[in-house]
């Protein structure tokens, strides 16, 4: 294993994007630790475009693992045994040769602290048998390794061959004892990697996973500008705050996947796939968003149903106002609806109560939870 990455110097730190300097924050509904920034994989749609560091290809550390760990477990939103944890999912890949020693070190520290939180490691890079054995030494945390696979073969869009992720998935599944493996099938883009052949390959690959999670393309303004600058054909005429995947394409994908794989369930949401793999209720409380449960096995549906309950209104009111809400929260059969709480505070509330929390000013419409409408430009 290669030596650890170099800690960034003060001059570079001063010029870094402010959103990258703080290594702890909620991202995609898990509290995320990202004290290493820089990645050479160059996937065109990478979220690093949003943080202005896409051209930083050499991983560097903002601080030591020990300092990052202390910042994380003392963070105002971290709750032992409750908060879902994500490692290095914003500015690097956790299994890069330069980064993986940090990943294993943090997993060890979390485990030795006796924490039983869900911990997610998301990678598209190479995973070795030695990595698997180190994952298997963990006894307390509930580790899930999510392997990002798209099947895209256009090197301008995704320079890294999908066969690398496929081989990592098989390696992880073969040796899994004390961790779970999820096929993270994304991004799916109509006309690019959603043919019958692409779906058949993904369905076959899912036999090497405890669950499959799929999603469309996160296509923001900064990513669209990069596509334009590189002459990459734009997949959509619009950008959106939520992921793009037209409903008819989603329905066709699910139908074809189901015809070819009746063993590995497929889920709309990451936390649903993780929950199924670990035989636990969904920590994001998606049970109320009933249309998301259409692919869920009955056994998992029963687990989530037993754990899901509306919060006490008085307790909820107190929590919301303490967090800074500007009016009484409303509770319906699908979610808590609040005004005045940013994403960070909403996710904290969501994980505290096991119930979806939505922003009143950014409503979630039926059948569009986490998915924007889009017109194809193919």
Give a written overview of the molecule.
The protein has 378 residues and is α/β, with parallel strands linked by helices. It has one domain: TIM Barrel, CATH 3.20.20.70. α6 links the parallel β7 and β8.
Concise summary:
It comes from Pseudomonas monsensis. The protein has 378 residues and is of the alpha/beta class. The chain has 13 helices and 15 strands.
Q: Do you know the CATH architecture?
A: Alpha-Beta Barrel
Main sheet?
A: 8 strands, mixed
> What is the string of SSEs from the N terminus onward?
HHEEEEHEHEHEHEHEHEHEHHHEEHEE
CATH superfamily: Aldolase class I
The count of domains is 1
Total strand segments: 15
* Strand order in the largest sheet: 1-2-5-6-7-8-9-11
Mean pLDDT: 92
Categorize the overall geometry.
Answer: globular
User: What class do helices, strands and sheet pairing give?
Assistant: alpha/beta
- Low confidence ranges: none
Strand content: 5-15%
- Give the count of helical stretches: 13
Helix content class: 25-40%
Question: Quick one: CATH class?
Answer: Alpha Beta
User: Radius of gyration in whole Å, from Cα?
Assistant: 20 Å
CATH topology grouping: TIM Barrel
- Give the distance, in angstroms, between the N- and C-terminal Cα atoms: 44 Å
Give keywords.
single chain, 378 residues, alpha/beta, TIM Barrel, 8-stranded mixed β-sheet, 3-stranded mixed β-sheet, 34% helix, 14% strand
Secondary structure layout:
Elements: H1 10-15, H2 18-21, E1 24-27, E2 30-33, E3 36-37, E4 60-61, H3 65-73, E5 85-87, H4 100-112, E6 118-123, H5 129-136, E7 142-149, H6 162-175, E8 180-185, H7 196-205, E9 211-214, H8 221-230, E10 243-244, H9 247-260, E11 266-267, H10 270-278, H11 298-307, H12 313-323, E12 330-331, E13 336-338, H13 343-353, E14 357-359, E15 371-372
Parallel strand pairs: 2-5, 5-6, 6-7, 7-8, 8-9, 9-11, 10-15, 13-14
Antiparallel strand pairs: 1-2, 3-4, 12-13
């Amino acid at each position: 294993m290669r030596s650890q990455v170099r800690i960034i110097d003060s001059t570079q730190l001063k010029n870094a994007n402010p959103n990258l300097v703080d290594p702890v924050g909620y991202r995609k509904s898990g509290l995320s630790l990202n004290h290493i920034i820089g990645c050479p994989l160059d996937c065109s749609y990478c979220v690093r475009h949003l943080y202005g560091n896409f051209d930083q290809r050499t991983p560097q550390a903002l601080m030591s693992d020990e300092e990052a760990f202390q910042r994380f477990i003392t963070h105002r939103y971290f709750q032992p045994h409750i908060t879902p944890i994500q490692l290095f999912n914003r500015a690097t890949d956790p299994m890069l040769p330069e980064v993986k020693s940090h990943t294993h070190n943090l997993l060890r520290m979390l485990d030795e602290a006796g924490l039983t939180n869900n911990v997610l490691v998301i990678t598209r890079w190479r995973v070795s048998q030695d990595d698997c054995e180190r994952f298997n030494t963990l006894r307390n945390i509930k580790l899930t390794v999510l392997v990002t696979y798209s099947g895209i073969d256009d090197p301008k869009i995704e320079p890294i061959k999908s066969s690398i992720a496929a081989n990592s998935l098989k390696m992880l599944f073969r040796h899994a004892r004390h961790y779970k493996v999820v096929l993270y099938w994304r991004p799916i883009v109509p006309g690019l990697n959603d043919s019958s052949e692409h779906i058949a390959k993904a369905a076959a690959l899912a036999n090497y996973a405890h669950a499959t999670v799929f999603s469309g393309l996160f296509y923001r303004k900064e990513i669209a500008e990069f596509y334009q600058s590189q002459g990459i054909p734009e997949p959509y005429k619009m950008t959106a705050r939520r992921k793009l995947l037209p409903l008819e394409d989603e329905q066709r994908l699910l139908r074809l996947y189901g015809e070819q794989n009746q063993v590995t369930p497929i889920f709309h949401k990451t936390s649903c796939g993780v929950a199924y793999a670990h035989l636990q209720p969904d920590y994001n409380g998606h049970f109320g968003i009933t249309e998301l449960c259409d692919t869920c096995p009955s056994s998992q549906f029963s687990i989530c149903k037993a754990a899901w309950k509306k919060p006490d209104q008085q307790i909820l009111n107190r929590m919301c106002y303490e967090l800074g809400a500007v009016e009484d929260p409303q509770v319906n059969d699908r979610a808590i609806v609040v005004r005045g709480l940013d994403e960070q505070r909403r996710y904290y509330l969501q994980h505290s109560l096991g119930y979806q929390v939505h922003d009143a000013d950014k409503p979630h419409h039926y059948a569009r939870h986490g998915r924007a409408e889009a017109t194809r430009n193919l």
